[in-house]
Sequence to fold (355 residues):
Amino acid sequence: MKLMSSNLARHFAVAAFCLSSLAIAAPASASPDWAIDVAGGEDHPLIQRYNNSWMMAYKKIGFDQTTFPGKLGLDSHNEFISPITVEGQITRMVYFAPLGKTPLEVHRNYEQALKAAGFKAIISCTPRDKGCEHMRYGFDDHYSSMKEADFRANRARHPEKSALNNQMFSLGGTNMLGTDDLYFTYGTLTKDGNTVHAMLNTGKVYRTDFTTTYIEIAEPQAMQGGQVTVNADALKNALQSSGKVALYGIYFDTGKSEIKAAESKTQLDEMAKLLKSQPALKVYIVGHTDNQGNLDANQALSQQRAQAVVAALTKQYQIAATRVASKGVASLAPVASNDNDAGRAKNRRVELVVQ
Fold:
């Protein structure tokens, strides 16, 4: 097992940078005729596929939040220990190597390619290292939203390959992330002040002879802020009908409580407009997070963010401090499932609640 300490950058810079292309493989056309890439899938420019592999699943997200492990191992909830939460463009890929290739050979090739690109390994473990075989459970929920290749259709196209196709027919779900002989690597690449994160997991697919590699890459990507605003009239109607309203137009950097002023101004303007139009209205400003990371840390962060909104309303808009109170509840009041990216995005919010 190899563990290296590093001060990891937890936030992405606004400007994205171009990654140098590094191919360790032949193009997709070199794959066998029965190995058909998932529709819409494409190799990441940073690291391409192992020779003659094919892409079994793919997902690219323009801007979202994900987690990487700070230490080897998982906690009692099968989540990463000391998780590193990052935001930016996220690409997830699952590759199947040609039959006969071992997880060790495939994984070492990917590691060498990342090292050549400038990555530094933070965590690297093998099946002999305690805890390595469980690392996949820290990210198997990431797989749920990925688009799979139609391997059953591939089986129907080539009935003559019965032994292979019988194995292909049994594939699906998180078993495709590998269940045996598992190797795991997490590392970062720093360039021009930006940090790219990459995670690899290679192993044997459950009850088959296939070797699979899951790759997740998170890279700097500017988010277009200030795109979601609830105006004063809509705020008033929501408070009258349900006593609360969720706001997604107030922005913070990951792990920070300082409001991003430019992106959040429009929403703050509308909140102040509502409060000034109803002098008797008193509200709670409630901060919410998703369930990624430590609960106590998220509790403190949600409270600090709520306080930051209160401070903006009282100092910038002269709203009386007696009319706005801050509360932070971390992930204790979700409005969607925390098992997928879309749900976690909905849970990260500020709410206006009538006192």
